[in-house]
Specification:
It contains nine helices and eight strands. By secondary structure, the protein is of the alpha/beta class. It has a single domain, classed as Zn peptidases (Aminopeptidase, 3-Layer(aba) Sandwich), CATH 3.40.630. The chain has a six-stranded mixed beta sheet with strand order 2-3-5-4-6-8, sandwiched between helices. It has a two-stranded antiparallel ribbon with strand order 1-7. The chain starts with a strand and ends with a helix.
Length: 289
């Protein structure tokens, strides 16, 4: 992902509404312990650049964790493949995604937040939704782990055209599935301590408002402050360019291109807050509420 410019930070701010417990809403649908274990499992693999043998082995494990999990090749990129899971329903559906590759440099980069956290939350949300009762004729939900989000060489900020040197898996997915997506939610830096996820500058305003409404319902609104930050070129960008409302959950304050991106910078509580919020949003979108 790459920042392309700053927006004025504005907004009146707001306090959390009544707690989810006071509203009587169940908020234990997302298994944060399992998500944390999966983050650690990915980090233990080490550096996981797109197309590497270690990433391909990990992809096999991730595929088995998703409902109806399968691989989709990334055309023109030998060895790259997206991992896709599906909960059946009507189309156009919902895509919940993250990238599962890591930077190729610096050497030894393990991507605890920049890759592993979002991947773990996507899988946790998939499991939570698979267990849930659904209304008649729900929307389809796709869970997509994108390969090749990072460029094949160097850092995103060193690329003259990151949209085309990176985002290889998300661009391929959008091209392969025209007209199939009604809403897209991207999870990127979502596991760090002190998590704050303002609206990323290019994210669709109406979908962002629905996310914050879902956060209020599950008591997590403090993690989603009412202001906007920079525009970020990320795996939601191909969806936006194709006309699909999309949002990018990313705490851009986090140093996600540094060797400091390790487990010690993350918090299971942050994974839980995002997982519960996205589960609630997806539940409502799936039922067209």
């Amino acid at each position: 992902m790459l920042a392309v410019g700053a927006l004025p930070i504005s907004g009146c701010g707001s306090s959390d509404a009544a707690s989810a417990g006071e509203r009587g809403l169940r908020v234990d649908r997302f298994d944060s312990d399992a998500a944390w274990r999966l983050v650690k499992e990915q980090v233990a693999v080490g550096q996981r650049p797109a197309g590497s043998p270690q990433l391909r082995r990990l992809a096999g494990r991730l595929r088995r964790m998703l409902p109806e999990g399968r691989f989709e090749p990334v055309p023109g990129e030998p060895g790259l493949r997206n991992v896709v899971g599906t909960l059946s329903g009507t189309k156009p559906g919902i895509v919940i995604g993250a990238h599962y590759d890591t930077l190729v440099k610096p050497k030894g980069f393990v991507g605890a937040n920049n890759g592993a956290a979002g991947t773990a939350v996507v899988i946790g949300v998939a499991r939570a939704l698979a267990r849930a009762d659904v209304a008649a004729e729900p929307r389809q939900v796709r869970f997509v782990l994108f390969d090749g989000e990072e460029p094949a060489a160097g850092l995103p900020e060193e690329s003259r055209d990151f949209y085309h040197s990176g985002l290889r898996g998300s661009r391929a997915y959008v091209k392969a599935h025209p007209g199939e997506t009604a809403h897209m939610v991207l999870l990127d830096y979502v596991g760090n301590r002190g998590l704050r996820l303002p609206r990323e500058g290019s994210s669709s305003i109406e979908l962002w408002s629905r996310l914050r409404s879902s956060a209020r319902r599950v008591g997590t609104q403090r993690h989603f402050p009412d202001y906007s930050s920079e525009d970020i070129v990320d795996d939601h960008s191909p969806f936006l360019r194709s006309g699909v409302p999309a949002i990018d959950l990313i705490d851009w304050r986090y140093r996600g291109h540094s060797l400091s991106d390790g487990l010690d910078r993350l918090s299971p509580a942050s994974l839980d807050a995002v997982g519960e919020t996205v589960t609630e949003l997806a539940t409502r979108l799936r039922a067209r509420r």
